[in-house]
Design the sequence.
């Protein structure tokens, strides 16, 4: 797989998700919808992740400590849908679709932490031509060889929300995820993955239009 | 119009993703002197990885049947083997089911010796399909691979598929193996204590062996193996070998899926079929073997003592047989005495290919 194919696929998927978000009642949906795109790497192996998160709950917490110091942060809860992929040469390509629950805590200056469990389905594609040999010694090639697995991921990350202090419609984030797939050879396969990406807040599109 | 565009976009993305996935699975067969290619054999709910490296132009293939069960074949792919065997012949690094980079779903019921024997047969058929029916195939079984290749060689007409059988620190007879391991631990341990060498290490080993005289359970068997692995590290003559360092060295070169190797090993090494293996022996069937055979054992191998090699040597029917003992090796002849290992393997293959 060369880099051109990889970049093209990411661009197509990002564009498709963008189109999807614009389809139904853009005014309402986009107020709570964010789009995510990230580089999804496991050690040295490349991948990509695209997703959308929908805010279902958001509230501000303002506290004054005994010392007099003020704490001011937002708590947000999102449901999310994500499509991930990584390419591990000679081993597997893994494409996985997940739905999840994201808990994010953003400080007034824009820095945030988040935690998100997700469940979903994984489809792997083996990293090489796959053959079947019958009991008479006849050999055939298995097309699209690979397996379906139930998938559970947990991840935690940090980031910076540019909309807080700088009124820009995006968030930068870094996240570590632990993928587990079952049943993998009658046991559980675990794999760490790292995401570096961008979240785009669609509600800013509406704001720009209203200014015009 | 918007809906049509959306559907078109969906279709394009679908095709694009499909293209990305299948591009890695396109059949590629290379005949050359410096080949490296990976493919998979799907058999009985497992997709087993095969890495072929080296000189496929020689049409001579050495299939590594790794130990374990569950260890995977990555560790055997050393630089020394690359420069001293792969330059002459092709080496096939086969990850057995539930080992290494092999993949599948719920396939634990198929993790048994008869199924793995069938897997090996199909690996050979696949190699001949890809590289030509006239290819010369040799099999090399290390440790548990010795039991698996013994099963293969004594089943039906399987041995006619290979030009030669190489056993490295392997066991054709697990009950006998336990007895010999215990005897060797006692004998060498007492000698070492008399020499005042590693007394604190040897004393519990000797006490355990004295307390467990025979008719071993799986737990006793595992304990003896564990003591055997420790014991060779107490012998100054042995070239010490660090498995983790070797794995680290090969991990990036071979795109080692570290967590898959680990979970497969943990599953296979604890799977219920180990209890069956513990009672398995092929000594009484070795007379069937008429294929050229090379037996390589470490002088200080406590896990599979060299007497197991003598057992094979004395029972097989072929006159084309040779047994070599490495004076500086324990259970990993191919890593602890690389020069002798590669010389013997190269000469054996060159003679019988």
Sequence:
């Amino acid at each position: 797989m060369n880099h051109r194919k990889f970049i093209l696929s990411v661009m197509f998927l990002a564009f498709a998700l963008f189109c999807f978000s614009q389809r139904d009642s853009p005014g309402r949906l986009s107020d709570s919808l964010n789009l995510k795109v990230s580089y999804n790497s496991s050690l040295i192996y490349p991948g990509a992740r695209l997703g959308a998160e929908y805010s279902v709950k958001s509230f501000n917490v303002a506290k004054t400590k005994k010392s007099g110091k003020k704490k001011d942060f937002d708590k947000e809860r999102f449901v999310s849908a994500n499509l991930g992929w990584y390419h591990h040469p000679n081993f597997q390509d893994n494409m996985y679709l997940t739905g999840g629950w994201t808990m994010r805590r953003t400080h007034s200056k824009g820095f945030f932490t988040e935690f998100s469990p997700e469940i979903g389905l994984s489809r792997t594609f083996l990293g090489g031509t796959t053959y079947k040999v019958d009991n008479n010694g006849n050999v055939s090639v298995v097309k699209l060889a690979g397996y379906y697995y139930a998938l559970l991921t947990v991840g935690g990350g940090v980031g910076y929300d540019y909309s807080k202090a700088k009124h820009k419609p995006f968030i930068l984030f870094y996240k570590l995820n632990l993928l587990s797939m079952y049943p993998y050879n009658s046991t559980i396969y675990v794999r760490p993955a790292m995401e570096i990406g961008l979240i785009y807040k669609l509600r800013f599109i509406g704001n720009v239009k209203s200014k015009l | 119009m918007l809906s049509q565009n959306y559907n078109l976009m969906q279709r394009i993305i679908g095709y694009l993703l499909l293209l990305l996935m299948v591009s890695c699975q396109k059949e590629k067969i290379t005949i050359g002197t410096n080949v490296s290619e990976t493919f998979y054999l799907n058999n009985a709910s497992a997709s087993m990885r095969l890495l072929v490296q080296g000189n496929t132009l020689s049409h001579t293939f050495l299939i590594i049947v790794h130990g374990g069960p569950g260890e995977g074949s990555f560790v055997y792919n050393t630089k020394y083997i690359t420069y001293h065997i792969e330059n002459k012949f092709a080496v096939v690094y086969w990850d057995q089911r539930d080992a290494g980079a092999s993949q599948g779903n719920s396939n634990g019921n198929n993790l048994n010796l008869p199924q793995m024997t069938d897997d090996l047969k199909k690996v050979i058929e696949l190699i001949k399909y890809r590289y030509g029916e006239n290819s010369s195939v040799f099999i090399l079984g290390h440790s548990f691979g010795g039991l698996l290749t013994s099963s293969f060689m004594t089943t039906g007409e399987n041995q006619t598929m290979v030009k030669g059988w190489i056993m490295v620190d392997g066991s054709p007879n697990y009950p006998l193996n336990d007895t010999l391991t215990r005897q060797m631990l006692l004998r060498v341990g007492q000698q070492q204590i008399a020499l005042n060498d590693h007394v604190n290490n040897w004393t519990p080993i000797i006490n355990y062996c004295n307390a467990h005289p025979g008719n071993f359970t799986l737990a006793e068997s595992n304990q003896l193996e564990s003591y055997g692995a420790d014991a060779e590290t107490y012998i100054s003559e042995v070239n010490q070998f660090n498995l983790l360092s070797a794995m680290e060295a090969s991990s990036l070169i071979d795109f080692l899926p570290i967590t898959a190797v680990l979970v497969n090993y943990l599953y296979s090494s604890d799977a219920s079929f180990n209890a069956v293996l513990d009672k398995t022996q092929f000594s009484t069937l070795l007379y069937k073997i008429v294929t050229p055979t090379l037996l390589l054992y470490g002088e200080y191998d406590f896990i599979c003592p060299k007497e197991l090699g003598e057992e094979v040597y004395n029972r097989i029917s072929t006159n084309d047989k040779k047994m070599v003992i490495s004076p500086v090796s324990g259970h990993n002849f191919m890593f602890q005495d690389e020069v002798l290992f590669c010389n013997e393997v190269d000469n054996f293959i060159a003679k019988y290919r």
User: Anything to note?
Assistant: The CA atoms of residues 108 and 224 of chain B lie 26 Å apart.
